Amino acid sequence: MPNRKLSTPDFERCRITDGNGWEKLSVDRILDHQYIQIEEISYRTPARDEPVDWTVARRKSAIAVAPMLPDGRFLLIQQERYPIQRTIWEFPAGQIDDVENKEDREVILNTVHSELDEETGHQLAPEGEIQALGYFFSSQGFSDEHVYLFLANPVIPTGKGPSPDDGESILGCKAVTADELRDEIAANRIVDANTLALYARLCACGIIGQG
Prior knowledge:
Elements: E1 23-32, E2 37-44, E3 52-58, E4 62-67, E5 74-81, E6 86-90, E7 93-95, H1 105-120, E8 122-137, E9 146-157, E10 170-176, H2 178-186, H3 193-204
Parallel strand pairs: 4-9
Antiparallel strand pairs: 1-2, 2-3, 4-7, 5-6, 5-10, 8-9
């Protein structure tokens, strides 16, 4: 069991609800799968006089975490990604499986700790902190999926290595400096939205320099 901070830090959670001129008028679910649901939705919006029909992909909310070692380097994992038929380096990430309580802060933080342990074989150090860095929408024109971003600082090895789920194919884990991370992004060798968004937020919050 990974080390866990007893306190749950306060952070903004994503709420997608009617209000401020927005209203769902009708919802027709046309696909119901454990990983994705497709709905045809009619909306009333603040800027349009007539309702708008839209196709929306429902996805679980998720987390992405930048694990920082005591020496200031970051951990990346190498993972096979089937839809794009590539093996890429990225920050650890994972969906929040407790759908009923997906926006509960403790549930979100538990997912951060679990993904750290499973994908990197590391855990938050006893003196470490989980810092919330907001959230972003991964494909806002198509899906309501949103990803919570975190920094885990510092992390230490669990002693047992990564233990990914059966459906995951994680081939390695490596430590990179902030400069190496920036160079990989600039060279278009890091291409996933989670890592790019986390890097941008780390820079915007002044946690790492922009070079």
